[in-house]
Amino acid sequence: MYIRSGELVIILGVKKYLKRSRLGSLRFQIGFLIILAGIIPVLIIEGVLLSTYEKRAVNVRTAEIQSQCTILCNQLGDSSDLKGKNSEFIKTELDQLTNIYNGRVMLIDDNFQIMEDTYGMDDGKTIVSGDVIQCLKGQGTSHYDSGNRYIEVTSPIADSQTNEVKGVMLVSVSTDTIVDTLHELRSSVRTVGGVILIIWVLIALVFSKLMVRPFIRITRSLENATAGYDESMLHENAYTETRQMTEAFNKMLGRLRVLDDSRTEFVSNVSHELKTPLTSMKVLSDSLLTQEDVPVELYKEFMGDLSEEIERENKIINDLLSLVKMDKTADTMNISSVNINTLVERILKQLRPIAAKNNIEVVFESFRPVTAEVDEVKLSLAITNLVENAIKYNQENGWVHVALNADHKLFYIEVADSGIGIAPEETDHIFERFYRVDKSHSREIGGTGLGLAIARSAIVMHRGAIKVYSQPGKGTTFTVKIPLTYVS
Questions:
Q1: Of 193, 224, 344, 360, which has the fewest Cβ atoms less than 10 A away?
Q2: What is the average pLDDT value for the chain, to the nearest integer?
Q3: 232-239 — which CB contacts under 8 Å span 24+ positions?
Q4: Are residues 451 and 308 in the same domain?
């Protein structure tokens, strides 16, 4: 059993979706996302860790310097001036502070003159800055310059008796040791992060491979399906998506099998239906040819039988031609404003003689006048098929009820009968082409399984819908709804 060209296009389309280029593959994208999910946290942790360390180290160093400055400023505040009798002692303390913190200390009086510079470069010079001005007002400052790698601290020197600020101690300390430690820490963090990322990449590769395995199995099944149907169904329940995909595929495969089986059966049935009348006609004609002096009564009887067989053949061919024509003119709708009441009455008038043969009563009930934009030929074909089926598959002395109604948007046609009904498992397939519910009965009455398919196609072309409600032995009801205004 092989797949037809239409089904092959569907399967190849699904397979093409699942099996794209390597960069667009699901495995690559999953792996990339997992790796990215590993890299981003490592980079964030590195940045936060280094930033936290730097901030903490600078704060500790600044606090230490401010503490030392406070002690020295208190000692200087006890002296009479910044170069008093304790100047040598203070200078020693300043030099010691400079050596410990690898920095520079300057003493500035209230006239902004540098009285002492541990570097010996700017003694006697004047310095005016915002930090010095603020400190002379009694408020010390601190500032960290990460670009130039130094901490600058100012501390006011106040008279111990009057608390009057008479100078400023300005300390500039290098942060090279902090930066060096920061570089070492960054190197260690990156080494550890690199190892973690390598492990993470390996995990990503393994995990992505495991995650796409169900899709690989589905792809292989699709590849197998391109050569022919596989008897086994897909059962891939690893994820919700794969389960939904396999269910959809199994449903599609099942419908393709049913369609293929129905086509095969249809070809067999049509061959039988076409062959049987031809055989009968040949037998009848041969009988007439081989007999001499055939009585007129027998001749008429044989010709009547020939006419019936020709009619059977003609009906099968007409159904096939109607379906082909419907397919070819699917995009061509001859829309016009049609009185639906009149249309239905005309169809029922044509079919009542057929119903009368089996004493079937045909009743038409119209609730209001209905005018709609439809293709009269196609809609007539649909209604005719529905009513004709209701008559053919009915009980003797039964009834067919046709109702017409409308609202502001749609009109509704209901065809109900007291016929043999349809089993629940059959209702999902009755609109499929070549499908016949009661095959033996259909053959007896000349059915080909195309009538409902033709009706549904015509209704769908009008942007309408058709539903069926049926119980075996209790009849069938078809409900059709079609827009009053056709929208192309």
A1: 224
A2: 79
A3: 238/213, 238/214, 239/214
A4: no
